[in-house]
Write a structure and sequence with these properties.
This protein is of the alpha/beta class. It has helices at residues 14-24, 31-39, 52-73, 143-151, 166-178, 216-226, and strands at 2-3, 10-11, 99-100, 135-136, 155-159, 186-190, 200-204, 207-211. The protein has two domains: 2-73, no CATH class; 93-226, no CATH class. A hairpin with a 2-residue loop joins strand 7 and strand 8 (207-211). The chain is globular, with a radius of gyration of 19 Å.
Length: 236
């Protein structure tokens, strides 16, 4: 089943979902969804043959898209998306411990699918079709939804409930209530592991920063650097 990120409606397969996006959400689509819709060919029952002129035109267009994606979207530590390059981290002393990793892709899989993520907490890779809403959570959320949140440009802060200080809780609750744009939210959730190596891990698409102690200034710098700058629909 495919679930629409924009209205929540469910569809039996990807073809029906893409038809729905094209018909109902054309002006709202992020870059990746626009590309998916543009490459989707609903076809018809009778079928048709492409003439030589059309085939040549399609090949030229495809070549142009490859050049565009390679040189303008996939390189230079840009937003990441499906490209393999690591993201560039701003030259800020507060972000000196931040780590950047190549993208593991951004494909959609059915909700409930088991996904073996390369990093934990995950920073990219296959994910569910619906992003988690921003906010402060006391319970763990499915990682497949959180990775989609990262793709949307959310900052996801994973905390160890046993080490969560009153200062950290108050600051995270303030951040999650302040930044609630669907393309630039802050989400705070319990760490997916029972005994994490560090009590706080800040994550954005392809980027993480682990903290032994909660530092509001570092959290603010990380949030400012990456919030709203996910690969699907960057808004900052």
């Amino acid at each position: 089943m495919e679930e629409c990120d924009y209205c929540g409606e469910s569809f039996p397969d990807e073809d029906a979902y893409l038809d729905h996006l094209a018909a109902e959400h054309e002006g709202e689509l992020g870059r990746i969804d626009r590309r998916r819709v543009a490459s989707h060919d609903p076809g018809d029952d009778e079928g048709f043959e492409l003439g030589p002129t059309v085939l040549v035109a399609l090949l030229v267009l495809a070549g142009g898209l490859v050049v565009y994606v390679t040189f303008f979207m996939g390189g230079g530590g840009g937003n990441g998306g499906d490209g393999g390059a690591a993201r560039e981290i701003p030259d800020d002393p507060l972000l000196a411990d931040a780590e950047s990793f190549p993208s593991n892709g951004a494909s959609h899989v059915s909700s409930g699918t088991d996904i073996d993520y390369e990093q934990m907490p995950p920073l990219s890779g296959p994910h569910y079709s619906r992003a988690a809403s921003g906010g402060f959570y006391e319970e763990r959320l499915p990682l497949g939804n959180l990775v989609h949140s990262l793709e949307h440009g959310h900052i996801v802060v994973h905390y160890d409930p046993d080490a969560l200080s009153a200062e950290a809780r108050a600051d995270l609750q303030n951040l999650t209530s302040t930044y609630d744009d669907p393309w630039a939210s802050v989400t705070a959730v319990p760490h997916p592991e029972d005994d994490p190596e560090t009590p706080y891990v800040l994550t954005a698409w392809q980027v993480r920063l682990a903290m032994d102690e909660y530092d509001p200034e570092t959290v603010s710098a990380f949030t400012d650097a990456f919030r709203g700058r996910g690969p699907e629909n960057p808004v900052r």
